[in-house]
């Protein structure tokens, strides 16, 4: 989103999409700049991305976070892989739940 704000700023300054891309070349792709310029030209002012279609994330739920917390409270020797297999979620997602559990502690 930060880059969208930068692109909007350049757009409001009257820069072209090409000039903006050259300014931000190390931070954002040319395709992205041109897509946002089109949105701004079409009158869109909001810099938030549009809602995406598709299946919503299902593993990051309060229930799963609580399940990870309970499993760890019962047995601190459990590995993230073991917890992930038990809950049928990815190890990465399990690690995120683990981090949230101990960030509160």
Automatic annotation (TrEMBL):
Protein name: Mos1 transposase HTH domain-containing protein
UniProt region (Disordered), positions on chain: 44-67
InterPro entries, per the entry: Homeodomain-like_sf (IPR009057), Transposase-MT_Hybrid (IPR052709)
Localization per Swiss-Prot or TrEMBL: Nucleus
GO cellular component labels: nucleus
